[in-house]
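Please review this one.

:::
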Amino acid sequence: MTTEVCLITGGSRGIGLATALRFARAGWHSVIVARHESELAQAHAQISDAGGEVRAVVADVGTPAGTEEMVAAARDAFGRVDVLVNNAGYAPLAPTEELSREDFDRAIATNVSAVFHGSRTVWPLMRSQGGGVIVNVSSISSVDPFLGFGVYGACKAWVNLFTQALAAEGRPVGIRAFAVAPGMVETQMLRSRFPDVPSEQTLAPDDVAAVIETVCAEHMRYATGQTIFVRK
């Protein structure tokens, strides 16, 4: 019996870690990717304790080399990738005239380039194994770019449309694609931007992870291409 494999970017904390834990409890293997080795080591231990076999990859998925490295690591370790979760994100908070070129470039690299290169790189492997699922983590800001989040929201709007394109291209070869677009999630990134948001208004990372797990199920195959909004 083949054990299914999930590859998750931004997998050391927040939504990515919660997703890896869910798949581990379901008996999947996981490959988690992030830039910081110490956080990856802590996440690795949690996922292992949950019963999953896991590999941790230190890589910058905002570069083509980083996405190639993570897919190669998954292929070398487990021989396949059944689900790719493009979760890594960067959300600069500033009005347009104050946003630095560096923050803009990083937002594009992390929220747009990483999704494109990750999907493109895993595609031949998924096609050769007969299919797979790509889940792109979007945001409610893709349809409501509130003040200061214009660039981040625009990136996530691109993610939603690119997901539709992936779904259309993937239908003939068994590859499905979904975007999952949460509202405010109780993560380190949220608290660094909005420290005063009441916790009762935020989603738990596992709330989003549960939706990611659901869209990967076979019974969701005819919903491919959709953006699923998750909010309180």
